Amino acid sequence: MENKYCSNCGAEIDSKAEICPKCGVRQKGTYIIQEKNPGVAAVLSALWVGLGQIYNGEIGKGILLMVVYTISAVLMVLIIGFITTPILWVYGVYDAYNSAKMINSGEKIV
Ligand SMILES: [Zn+2]
């Protein structure tokens, strides 16, 4: 078994441990962070809101956004969709871009 050392207290811990059993501090850099391209995430969400989120690994959120966006687009028939659809679109693109950046920097774990 491969061991590593806690970044906080220096205790020897399992290489797969996410949290040090000794001091309870979450280990940084132990995750395999898959780099996400914020541009790709934004473009995908621009094509269909939710796609960028799925690309980022936020599957549940992506599917939810896709469903809500589709409903919103259908609601365009009832005028209200003209208000909600652009808001959702802007949110989806911004969120995909921002999430990708946060995933890359390790601020967000998916
Ligand atoms: Zn520790």
Describe the structure concisely:
This protein is mainly α.
Number of helices, counting only DSSP H or I runs of 4 residues or more: 4
How many individual β-strands? 2
Whole-number mean pLDDT: 88
**Can you tell me the residue ranges where pLDDT is under 50 for at least 5 consecutive residues?**
none
Helix fraction by DSSP (H/I, runs of at least 4): 40-55%
> Strand content of the residues, in percent?
5-15%
* Largest sheet entry: 2 strands, antiparallel
Q: Distance between the terminal alpha carbons, to the nearest Å?
A: 26 Å
Overall 3D form: elongated
Bound molecules: zinc ion
Global Rg: 19 Å
The number of domains? 2
| Strand order, sheet with most strands | 1-2
What structural class should be given to the helix and strand makeup?
mainly alpha
Q: Which series of helices and strands comes N to C? A: EEHHHH
Topology:
Layout: E1 3-5, E2 12-14, H1 38-47, H2 51-55, H3 59-74, H4 81-105
Antiparallel strand pairs: 1-2
The structure holds zinc ion (ZN).
Zinc ion (ZN) is lined by residues 6, 8-9, 11, 20, 22-23, 25.
Can you walk me through this structure?
Strand 1 and strand 2 form a beta hairpin. The chain starts with a strand and ends in a 5-residue tail after the last helix. It is mainly α and 110 residues long. It is 51% helix and 5% strand. Helix 1 (38-47) runs antiparallel to helix 4 (81-105) and helix 3 (59-74) packs antiparallel against helix 4. Strands 1-2 form a two-stranded antiparallel ribbon. The protein contains four helices and two strands, in the order ββαααα. It folds into two domains: 1-32; 38-104. The model has no long low-confidence stretch (mean pLDDT 88).
